[in-house]
Write a structure and sequence with these properties.
This protein is of the alpha/beta class. The chain contains 21 helices and 17 strands. The protein has 3 domains: about 180 residues, PAS domain (Beta-Lactamase); about 160 residues, Histidine kinase-like ATPase, C-terminal domain (Heat Shock Protein 90); about 130 residues, Rossmann fold (3-Layer(aba) Sandwich). α19 links the parallel β15 and β16. α2 runs antiparallel to α4 and α11 packs across α14.
Length: about 650
């Protein structure tokens, strides 16, 4: 079980693997070096012992030649004792040319050697013959000894001490041999030295191995420590915990890895922060979408109510004498209703439920219309100042989008002054020439209507100013802004062919000025005169409207101005009424959103029976909403609530006559 755990640990632990690999390399190198060293020492000591034996044999042959020649043991005693003083010499013998033993001396430690040799004849005749043929030194190796034989010559060939170490080979040496000397060295001394050497080598190898293993351990730790820290940071990153940068301790690959991880972690943290911001923006967008849906529903219901108020008010006004005292009251009611209708339209514009519909527009009047809304937007701790030129500033723009631009700029100014301040809105006409366009956001030369929103806040630093129009860029904390306000302003202004410039002084104020091309023509304001309202020729209209007050008003207006009206309360009722009066119905007046079947479904169903039926759709929702949801298509006649009687009658007359 333990071996299985060790194998598992080896496979899963990187530090263990590095330590084992380095340790194996150290062991292999240590053992290999120790074996190589011992072999070299064994060979060296053996060769040294052989060289020593050969030298002793030559010295004995040189010093004992007179005693051998005279065959006198007394003359041989001193040379033999001189050689025997060497600690490695075990035995010395001298024989004459015929193999007769002239001298023999053995150390006490060689008693066992004598016993093993016994009483046999020594040296043997074969050995003598071999020595005669060899013409030089020879040696024999046994289990315990080295035996060295050297010839004794009649005259010395060693004239100097150096010639003892480097003897000359003489071709006539064999004719001068008078005997032989034998020096036996004890091999146990060599074995003992080798054992001591082996013991010391093993101890040194073990010490080096221990030191190497310790070094391997710390090397493995040094390699794996950054990786372990990296693993911890990665795990912390996976658990979305706060991360500290990895220390970059070296400039090698590990240091580069730590630097790369720090860069990756920093990038991921930035992306995570951006993700949080985006999530907040998505939640804000979802809230805005809910507001949009609510605004659409509120606008639909308000338009139905305003249709009845405005319609009946106009009918009442038309029924009064011209100088009636009640006319003033009716005019106030109609004026309030028209302002309420405009408020609904601005609500739809603010919630982006209307598409771009550029028309001649007076910017000054647009600001005036927004006065009450802006006061509620900035709050009571701020002052709103409006300074507009007396002349009309007519531009070709979408009224809803211009209102959104003004509201966004004022909201941005409000946020720049959390402790209160003054917001000023001013307008003026600007004439840009070629030299002026460089300071006006590369605007083209021409005449522009300029609208400026100024706050008394802390101003904008240069770094922030470079990015204020970027989408999703905001200096506010999370949850306090989406970073879309100024980017929307920038997009709308440029969509209308205009320009926007920023004038800021850090610590003092900030001004945003929008420049829109000024139109040369004057805006025409058409008033509907009741005396010019077109009348019908007793055509039959199928009116389908689920709101009772709107249905009653429309029936009253249409009947009064020469039409026959068939009423239906919902979609299915409209189809049934048409089936009953198919030959009589000349035109359909259908509310788009109705119970059971919507206006388009009613229209499609009736077209199957009468393909050329003429139709006018009405709804409290703008046409863009209807077309965006796929309920209505482009080119279909449509009129939005509230329904002024004149607009309804003129649209019906236009459809019938065409």
């Amino acid at each position: 079980m333990r071996s299985i755990n060790l194998i598992k640990n080896f496979r899963e632990n990187f530090t263990t693997r590095i330590f084992v690999v380095i340790s194996l390399l150290i062991i292999i190198i240590s053992v290999s070096f120790t074996v190589f060293f011992i072999r070299q020492q064994v060979n060296f000591r053996k060769e040294s012992l052989i060289t020593q034996g050969e030298l002793l044999a030559r010295m004995l042959a040189h010093n004992g030649r007179l005693g051998v020649f005279a065959e006198n043991e007394n003359l041989l005693r001193d040379p033999i004792e001189g050689i025997m003083h060497n600690k490695d010499v075990l035995r010395v013998r001298i024989v004459n040319h015929d193999g007769v033993l002239l001298g023999d001396q053995l150390k006490p430690s060689g008693a066992m050697f004598r016993e093993t040799e016994g009483e046999k004849e020594y040296p043997a005749k074969k050995l003598i013959d071999f020595l005669r043929r060899s013409k030089g030194q020879i040696y024999f190796q046994s289990a315990n000894t080295f035996e060295f034989w050297a010839p004794v010559l009649a005259s010395s060939e060693y004239f100097t001490d150096e010639t003892l170490l480097f003897p000359e080979n003489s071709e006539n040496r064999n004719h001068r041999i008078i005997g032989f000397v034998n020096v036996t060295l004890d091999k146990k001394v060599l074995d003992k030295a080798l054992r001591s050497l082996l013991m010391k080598s093993c101890m040194i190898a073990a010490l080096c191995l221990i030191v190497g293993l310790i070094v391997a351990y710390y090397v493995a730790k040094a390699i794996s420590r950054p990786l372990n820290r990296l693993t911890e940071r990665v795990n912390a990153m996976g658990a979305y915990a706060s991360m500290k940068p990895l220390p970059v301790e070296t400039n090698d690959e590990i240091g580069n890895l730590a630097s790369a991880f720090n860069n990756m972690a920093e990038s991921l943290q930035k992306k995570e922060a951006e993700k949080v911001v985006l999530e907040e923006q998505v939640r804000h967008a979802q809230k805005m979408e809910a507001v949009v849906t609510l605004a659409g529903g509120v606008a639909h219901d308000f338009n139905n109510l305003l249709t009845a108020i405005i319609g009946y008010g106009i009918l009442l006004q038309n029924g009064l004498p011209k100088r009636s005292a009640l006319s003033t009251y009716i005019e106030q009611i109609l004026s309030a209703a028209e302002r309420a209708a405009g408020l609904v339209q601005r609500l739809l514009a603010f919630s982006r439920k209307q598409t771009n519909d550029p028309k001649p527009l007076d910017l000054n009047q647009t600001v005036r219309n927004l006065h009450d809304i802006l006061l509620r937007l900035i709050g009571e701790n701020m002052e709103l100042k409006i300074d507009l030129v007396k002349d009309d500033m007519i531009v070709k723009a979408d009224e809803g989008q211009m209102e959104q631009v003004i509201i966004n700029l004022v909201a941005n100014a409000r946020d720049a002054m959390p402790n209160g301040g003054t917001i000023a809105i001013s307008s003026h006409i600007v004439e840009l020439r070629g030299q002026d366009t460089k300071d006006s956001c590369d605007a083209k030369p021409g005449t522009y209507a300029a609208l400026t929103v100024t706050d008394t806040g802390a101003g904008i630093n240069p770094e922030t100013r470079e990015r204020i129009f970027e989408p999703f860029f905001t200096t506010k904390e999370v949850g306090k802004g989406t970073g879309l306000g100024l980017s929307i302003v920038y997009g709308i202004v440029h969509q209308h062919g205009g320009y926007i410039r920023v004038d800021t002084h850090p610590g003092q104020r900030t001004s945003f000025t929008i420049l829109l091309p000024l139109q040369e023509f004057a805006m025409e304001i058409k008033k509907m005169e009741t005396l010019l309202l077109p009348k019908g020729n007793m055509e039959t209209i199928l009116l389908a409207e689920d709101d009772r007050s709107v249905r009653s008003l429309a029936r009253h207006i249409l009947t009064k101005y020469g039409y026959n009206v068939i009423e239906a309360t919902d979609g299915e009722d409209a189809v049934e009424k048409f089936m009953e009066n198919r030959e009589m119905v000349n035109i359909l007046l259908l509310d788009v959103i109705m119970p059971k079947m919507n206006g388009k479904q009613v229209y499609e169903e009736i077209r199957k029976i009468k393909p050329d039926i003429k139709t006018l759709f009405i709804s409290g929702y703008p046409f863009e909403v209807m077309s965006g949801q796929g309920i209505l298509e482009e080119g279909i006649p449509f009129i939005a609530k509230p329904l002024p009687p004149g607009a309804l009658l003129m649209k019906l007359r236009e459809i019938i006559d065409n």
